[in-house]
Structures are given as C-alpha cells and as structure tokens.
Design a protein that fits this description.
globular, 11 strands, mainly beta
C-alpha cells in the first residue's frame, strides 16, 4: 500500500483546510485508513480513522465536530478540517493498517504540514 498526502498549508485560526490521501495498492479486508499528526516535540497522535469494509469512523475527542474524514470511490481519503486552532498545527500523516496500527504493520505517507496561526 502506498499513501501520498496533499493539501497542507498555512491558515489563520478559524479557517479550513482539506487534506487528501491518494491510496494505491491492494486494500485487504479489515484495513483501516486514518490520519495521524505530530507536532514539534510531541509524539504522533491519532486524529481520525475510516474502516474500509464497513465505513466505521472514529475521531479523537479534540477534533470531533470540526474534522470530517471521508473517502471516494477512487480510494482517496480526505480530512476536512474546519474551525482550525493553533493547537492543530502539526505534520499530518495518512496511514493504513489491518493490524491495529501496530509497528511494522502500518503504512505511512510522507506527511503534509499544517500550520494554524493565531
């Protein structure tokens, strides 16, 4: 599985950005596609996920009501981010796993920078 993100950038607080992740390769049953982020000096954290087989969606609490994860029929995955806050500033990574995000069983994109100014 290969993942390529796009759509990051600089935005003022309260603004919006839409991240895209182009997914290629075979997606097996049970695969979950998701978005993670890593701010400077902090560990990478889960943001949102979408289970390919049944569409189950999950969000971290701090983004609920502001971020929306979605997919299209061409295996692209999106993260619509509204009402952005400075604390959303991070490198955002698209990820895919059929093994609960375990090390060695998770595919990662190269990341895209999101910067929210106050």
């Amino acid at each position: 599985v290969q993942l390529v993100e796009s759509g990051g950038g600089l935005v003022q607080a309260g603004g919006s950005l839409r991240l895209s992740c182009a997914v290629s390769g075979v997606i097996i049953s049970g695969t979950v596609l998701g978005w993670f982020r890593q701010a400077p000096g902090k560990e990478r954290e889960f943001v949102a996920s979408f289970k390919w087989s049944d569409g189950f969606i999950n969000y971290r609490d701090s983004v609920k009501g502001r971020f929306t994860i979605s997919r299209d029929t061409a295996k692209n995955v999106y993260l619509q981010m509204n009402d952005l806050k400075p604390e959303d500033t991070a490198v955002y990574y698209c990820a895919a796993s059929a093994a609960g995000w375990s090390i060695g069983n998770t595919y990662w994109g190269q990341g895209t920078q999101v910067t929210v100014s106050s």
